[in-house]
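Before relying on records like the one below, remember that each one covers exactly one chain. Contacts with other chains, cofactors or solvent are not represented anywhere in the record.
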Amino acid sequence: MALVAVTDHAAERYLQRVRGALDPKLEVASRVSRAIDAGRLEPGERGAVLVRDREDTELVYICMEDKPRGELIVITLWEGGEDPRVPKRFTDELRRAARSSRASRA
């Protein structure tokens, strides 16, 4: 089993989709570890590793390897399928707001 770390961003996105997590980072790390043990990983773009959740097959964790530390870092997640819990228009709006905020600080 790989050592799994979870960013604050990934934990927030998880909480948006899966309610009731007391410790979202621990829950994400556990779910990613179980998915890796089940062989549910595939290469992604730009060196990312995609890990598909075992229990909720629509959740995909986007991870990066930290080879010197031997860690897999969950940087974000997304949800596939026809009926996502968080509609795309909301995630698109969050992305626009973040870009606007960065532009105003520059």
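The domain at 3-81 is CATH 3.30.2310.20 (YaeB-like fold).
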